[in-house]
Specification:
It comes from Cuneatibacter caecimuris. Keywords: Signal. InterPro entries: Signal_pept_SipW-depend-type (IPR023833). This is Putative ribosomally synthesized peptide with SipW-like signal peptide. The chain is elongated and about 120 Å long. It is built from 1 helix and 12 strands, in the order αββββββββββββ. The chain has a single domain, classed as Immunoglobulin-like, CATH 2.60.40. The longest helix is centred in the first third of the chain and has 25 residues. β1 and β2 form a beta hairpin. It has a 5-stranded antiparallel β-sheet, with no helix packed on it. Strands 4, 5, 9, 10 and 12 form a 5-stranded antiparallel β-sheet that branches. It has a two-stranded antiparallel sheet with strand order 6-7. About 15% of the residues lie in helices and about 35% in strands. It is mainly beta.
């Protein structure tokens, strides 16, 4: 009986050794070090003006002088994706008007409406946070459609606006479009304003 038990134990041991060797043969472990580089998101606000001759030029940094009540000023605003990845884009438009003495003037005229108006393009939607959101992801090297192309000064502005300086400030932000929401309104990761 002891002989049978010893033979059985040796057979089980041999089988265990063979099984362990076989499993060791079929398993392996290795470590790989991978470098993942993410694409960059960069944008540029592009502001142009169209002269009476139809030629587009950069919008002058000093603005346009000699604006009269009811006049239209050509200010063509778009955003270029200068980064390496497709991007969702949003833009905030802020305005201020300063009198000839440098004092702030109202942006709206009581009973008539805003001093400055502009018509926003159809691919832009105004969010509850005051930003205009571009509804189409912008590929690298491409531009948004125009946000607006004309700023109109109200007919009703009074003498206090004579010689004033109007500034329209365009601040744009972008986040990656890839794996970041089905629409621009679903996108996450916008910079804090």
């Amino acid at each position: 009986m002891k002989k049978k038990l010893l033979t059985l134990a040796m057979a089980v041991s041999c089988l265990a050794i063979i099984t362990a060797g076989t499993l060791a043969y079929f398993t392996s472990e290795d470590t790989a070090h991978n470098v993942i580089t993410s694409g960059g998101i960069n944008i540029e606000v592009v502001e142009k003006t169209q002269g009476e001759d139809g030629i587009l030029t950069d919008f002058p940094e000093e603005g346009i002088r000699g604006v009269m009540p009811g006049s239209d000023v050509s200010k063509i605003v778009s955003v270029k994706n200068t980064g390496e990845s497709e991007a969702w884009i949003r833009v905030r438009v802020e305005a201020d008007v300063k009198g000839i003495d440098g004092a702030d003037l109202p942006l709206s005229i009581e009973g008539t409406g805003p001093v400055l108006t502009y018509a926003v393009g159809s691919c832009w939607i105004l969010g509850e946070d005051g930003y205009y959101y571009y509804t189409v992801p912008v590929a690298p090297g491409q531009f948004t459609e125009i946000l607006f192309d004309t700023v109109t000064f109200a007919f009703e502005i009074g003498n206090e606006y004579q010689g004033c300086t109007a500034n329209i400030i365009i601040a744009a932000q972008a986040v990656q479009a890839s794996i970041n929401g089905e629409t621009v309104m679903d996108a996450k990761g916008w910079p804090e304003s």
